[in-house]
Amino acid sequence: MNYDIAGDSRIGSRKVNQDRYGYAERDGAVLMVVADGLGAYANSEVAAEFLKDTSIQALQQLDGGDILQPTLFLNYCILQTHRKLHLLAREHNLDIPPRTTGALCLIQNGYAYWAHVGDSRLYHIRNKQVINFTIDHVAGEATETKRGSLLQCIGSKNRPTVEHSREFPLEKGDSILICTDGVWDALEPGKLASCCNGFSTRSAVRKLLKRAEAARPDTADNMTALFLKWNAPVTKILGAQNEDWAFDDQDWLWDCLIRGNTDYRQLEKTNPSARPQPQFRLPRADLVADIEESDVADLEFFLEQK
What's the CA gap between 178 and 216, in Å, rounded? Predict the structure, then answer.
């Protein structure tokens, strides 16, 4: 994979930084995680840490091969964290579990998939413009710049409903920015995109956080940003899910987790809503003209076997 990535976090004017971020890579995939522990609840930095660690460990513990159902994997990371937070509360006799919002992005074979709960945001930037962004789980109408009362979080009394994207092929020069509300609430989307344009990922993150903190000098929230710049050309193969399908049976997944069925690869095999996986990764139809001769030979061999 050909990408650059950087992240950073600042405490702002708060006494404790309850934000967390992390990323990890394996077998043609990179996972990005940003979490914002809810300051109204005790020890919520623990919840943010749980989301980061649970997600990264889930990626690193997989055996070889692609993640066949990326949106199932992202749902798994979030709901497994929710389950662990409730087990933590029970073990330590806590009246209320620590709570966090969070946004995750998995990039695999040139495609991006993301999921979130709460008001941590993901922005997909192309040609200096925000072309996709997550919608906050808040009361009232949410826009690119408006915030409201939080409706969902990880660790809440009720199981959160994870919202996830479809499959997006990345183009060379695309960027993925995930940030907490301490960043996006201080800067409008145009300024977010401009901070990410024309700089190294590390410089872009530093500039972004510096501007966010300057915009709220006396009331700055914790501020965290994780920024990835994609340097590879558009992929020539179909994605794991295709653009018209995404996992959406969260009731089934939650039932599996609370019954102790936590082996992700086994969940991939038993998911009742899974699409059949092709035995051969066919090329994208819109890029057939660019197929290499070796790709054609592989396809001809596959068809002969059928």
Answer: 20
Would you give the DSSP letter of residue 282? P
280: which residues sit within 8 A by CB, 6+ positions away? 298, 299, 302
3-275 folds as Phosphatase 2c; domain 1 (3.60.40)
**What predicted TM-score, i.e. pTM, was given to this entire model?**
0.87
How far is it, in rounded angstroms, from Cα 134 to Cα 150? 14
- Alpha helical stretches, state H, the chain: 44-60, 70-91, 181-184, 189-195, 201-215, 250-258, 264-270, 293-305
Could you tell me how many helices (H) and strands (E) the chain has, helices first? 8, 11
Instruction: Write down the residue that tokens 């201080």 correspond to.
Output: 186
Q: d(Cα 73, Cα 247) in Å, to the nearest integer? A: 9
> Are the C-beta atoms of residues 265 and 68 closer than 8 Å to each other?
no
The model's pLDDT over 124-151, given as tens digits with 9 standing for 90+, comes to 999 989 999 999 999 866 555 555 789 9
Distance in angstroms (rounded) separating the CA atoms of residues 133 and 63: 31
Residues 33-63 have pLDDT tens digits of 999 999 877 789 999 999 999 999 999 999 8
Domain boundaries, the chain: 3-275, 280-306
The residue with tokens 């066919």 is 282
Secondary structure of residue 195 in the 3-state scheme:
helix
CB atoms under 10 Å from CB of 41, counted, come to: 19
In 3D space, the residue among 36, 119, 118, 43 whose CA is nearest the CA of residue 85 turns out to be 43
Q: Is the CA virtual torsion 218, 37, 143, 239 positive or negative?
A: positive
Cβ atoms < 10 Å from Cβ of 135: 13
Q: Which two tokens stand for residue 200?
A: 């190294």
Instruction: Specify the pairing of strand 129-133 against strand 121-126.
Output: antiparallel
